Amino acid sequence: MGNLDLAFGSEKNRKEKLKIYRNFNINMVKNFLEMISSLHNRKQRELINSIQIVGKENLDASLQKGKGVIAVSAHLGNFTILGLKLMNNGYCFRNVVRGFTDPLRKHIYEKYRMKQGQSFIFTRTSNQTLKNIIQALRNNEVVFIITDENKRHGGVFVNFFNRLASTNPGPAIIHLRTGAEMVPMFLIRKPDNTHMLIIEPPLNFNCQGNRQVCVKEITSLITQKIEDYIRKYPSQWMWNHRRWRTRPPEEKAQKVSYAYRKVLN
């Protein structure tokens, strides 16, 4: 509810926010149950068949350029099964996910992910992750990257629901290095509990600044696209994540300065 207040402020009243909150929890349960059922072959087939693709031609056109595709997305809808649909349709799809160093969690999560049948790039070390992503793009594969989480270290601050949010610059950096197009795609739950995979045209921008400026502009464009979808499907986003937790250095400096003046007075 705190995140809903931060995002919408007075745009929505408390009753509207409570409705989003309730529906968000219902969708979380549905997503979890679908994740578990996807481990069963027959249930996975039914799940894949319940997904309708809109905009497939956008992905095909980008892949025809031979540089691979950076698929940018968010924790929206049941994003965990998006790759199953694309792989079933013959696409070489790699899902970039968090890698765990803790042996127990590593065993549980990675065993589940591999059993589901998708192909993953685990983010254990940044250098090796980047090498794996670049190699996949050179092979003209689709690399799926979630970009809507708070980035504690190494993020760039861009506007998200009218507040600065520390955001992963990875897709922008990889695009500038490889020339692979960035294609937004989102899996949306429909009222009848089937799904719609929306594949948008590649992001279009004309950055004239230096590399650092370009990374920020591209990251901002990706984040704005994500915000547009969240506003359209608010109950399907992950509101339990502390998206605005990391603050800009200048904001922290202002707080320290205010506290210092208060002590002096």
Describe the structure.
- This protein is α/β, with parallel strands linked by helices and 265 residues long.
- The chain has one domain.
- It is built from 10 helices and 9 strands.
- It has helices spanning 2-8, 14-37, 41-49, 56-63, 82-88, 103-116, 126-138, 170-178, 211-232, 249-264; strands spanning 51-54, 69-73, 93-98, 119-123, 142-146, 156-160, 163-167, 181-189, 195-199.
- The longest helix has 24 residues, at 14-37.
- The chain is globular and about 55 Å long.
- 31% of the residues are buried.
Characteristics:
single chain; alpha/beta; 7-stranded mixed beta sheet; two-stranded antiparallel ribbon; 10 helices; 9 strands; globular
Summarize the entry for a quick read.
Helices cover 49% and strands 18% of the residues. It has 265 residues and is an alpha/beta fold.
Unreliable residue stretches:
256-260
Task: Give the number of domains.
Answer: 1
Distance between the termini: 36 Å
Contiguous helical run count: 10
Write down how many β-strands occur, each being a DSSP E stretch of 2 or more residues: 9
Helix share, percent: 40-55%
Topology:
Elements: H1 2-8, H2 14-37, H3 41-49, E1 51-54, H4 56-63, E2 69-73, H5 82-88, E3 93-98, H6 103-116, E4 119-123, H7 126-138, E5 142-146, E6 156-160, E7 163-167, H8 170-178, E8 181-189, E9 195-199, H9 211-232, H10 249-264
Parallel strand pairs: 1-9, 2-5, 2-8, 3-4, 3-5
Antiparallel strand pairs: 6-7, 8-9
Helix pairs in contact: 8-9
